[in-house]
Design brief:
This protein has six helices and 14 strands. It has 406 residues and is α+β, with helices and mostly antiparallel strands. Strands 1, 4, 6, 7, 8, 10, 12, 13 and 14 form a nine-stranded antiparallel β-sheet that branches. The protein has a three-stranded antiparallel β-sheet with strand order 5-11-9, with no helix packed on it. A two-stranded antiparallel ribbon has the order 2-3. Strand 13 and strand 14 form a beta hairpin. The longest helix is centred in the middle third of the chain and has 73 residues. It is elongated, with a radius of gyration of 34 Å. InterPro entries: Cell_wall_metabolism_enzyme (IPR050570), Dup_hybrid_motif (IPR011055), M23ase_b-sheet_dom (IPR016047). It comes from Winogradskyella rapida. One of its GO terms (molecular function) is hydrolase activity.
């Protein structure tokens, strides 16, 4: 009886807890995502919308609003998920509270019945008579064991009532907090939706004002992509030259187009790789305005764009910092373009493009966080964008997966 009681009690306590843990973990993940998006929104407002609109070209302003709208929609989606999950948790907890109240009442009723039964048996005198009336020693021993088990069971019932009462109290407190959290999330979402409506109206007004010039803007976007393709080819060439030069210097040749690493370079590359997801940002403040890979233009969805890295919008006159120890592999300035710095970290290369000033030269040893230049600010578009890339040999990598979350 004692063993079965404990098993049932443990099952009753563990099953609801496992479900709550799973829901709690999901809520924590969603809250982390929401806080990340809120930080991004704060950065967007500070870096893209702190100046007067007249200081930006129409196409840049539309891109910025589109970017902000997408982030705002993501914030609303995450907040909705949180509110919906809270609704399910609240319903689950309400059901659990009802069940606990029933269990608690049953325990109390059972305990009360035992108390009454114990009182009617005249306590110790009845117990003694119960033992003395045994027909033999074996029967007396069994009756003694029964008396002890009955006494222990009474204690266990009392403890079970305490446990269930405490569990019920904790769930009630948790339920109240969940209801407050849901109320807060719903209000925040209401505000976010109002702000989104305003941003969408602003975008519509801007799009209407430049409707007659959309073909001109589309051609500008295509021209930007052509310039990006030209830069890609130059960077591919520079990396191929760096690989060939490094391998030649080491006295070895490779037809694979990859660096042949010295023990020191292998160690540096391993250290770089082990810091994936933890590397510092190349600027103190920034938001990823253009993501890695293929996508659609934020202004004209019919135009496809392809980014070999990410474009980080930052503040005017922002310093550019090396994200890891390495050596300046090359510095390149394209015709009608801004300077690019390539830093080698074993068989990894980080690339910093669209600079206005350079503080390093080819062959310099660089330390993590060292300022290597400044980001160029375009007075025509009103943008301050750093084109940042990461390669392993000649393979393009997504920089966002390597940088730490801000």
């Amino acid at each position: 009886m004692k063993k079965n009681f404990y098993i049932l009690l443990i099952i009753g306590l563990i099953l609801p807890t496992i479900s709550l843990w799973a829901q709690s973990d999901k809520q924590k993940q969603l809250e982390q995502q929401r806080q990340q998006v809120l930080r991004e929104m704060k950065q967007i407002n500070a870096l893209l919308f702190s100046k007067k609109k007249e200081q930006k070209s129409a196409i840049t302003l539309i891109e910025d609003i589109n970017y902000k709208v997408n982030v705002r929609k993501n914030l609303i989606r995450i907040t909705n998920e949180q509110a919906n999950l809270l609704t399910r948790e609240i319903n689950s907890n309400q059901e659990e509270i009802t069940s606990l109240r029933t269990q608690l009442q049953e325990l109390k009723d059972d305990y009360a019945a035992m108390v009454v039964k114990s009182y009617k048996s005249k306590s110790e005198q009845s117990k003694v008579m119960f033992l003395l009336s045994s027909q033999n020693f074996q029967q007396a021993y069994k009756r003694l064991q029964y008396i002890r088990q009955y006494r222990d069971y009474q204690k266990e019932q009392g403890e079970a009532i305490k446990v269930k009462t405490k569990e019920l109290q904790d769930l009630n407190i948790q339920l109240s907090k969940q209801k407050e959290d849901k109320k807060k999330l719903i209000e925040e979402n209401r505000i976010a939706k109002r702000e989104l409506e305003g941003e969408l109206k602003e975008r519509e007004a801007l799009m209407a004002s430049i409707k007659s010039d959309m073909s001109k803007f589309a051609s500008q976007i295509k021209a930007k992509q052509q310039e990006a393709n030209r830069l890609d080819k130059e960077i591919d060439r520079l990396i191929a030259e760096a690989i060939a030069a490094a391998n030649k210097k080491s006295g070895k040749k490779s037809s694979t187009g990859k660096f042949i690493l010295t023990p020191e370079a292998k160690k540096l590359a391993a250290n770089f790789a082990s810091n994936k997801g933890k590397l510092g940002w190349p600027v103190a403040r920034g938001v990823v305005k253009a993501k890695f890979g293929k996508g659609r233009s934020l202004t004209d969805r019919s135009v496809q764009v392809n980014h070999s890295g990410i474009k980080i919008a930052t503040e005017v006159n922002a310093d550019v910092k090396a994200i890891f120890n390495g050596v300046v592999s090359s510095i390149h300035v394209m015709k009608r373009g801004n300077p690019t710095i390539l830093i080698r970290h074993g068989d990894y290369i980080t690339i910093y493009h669209n600079l206005s000033k350079l503080y390093v030269k080819k062959g310099d040893k660089i330390s993590t966080g060292q300022v290597i230049g400044k980001v160029f600010s375009n007075k025509i578009t009103g943008e301050t964008l750093l084109d940042f890339r990461i390669y392993k040999n000649n393979l393009k990598l997504n920089p966002e997966s390597w940088l730490a979350r801000q």
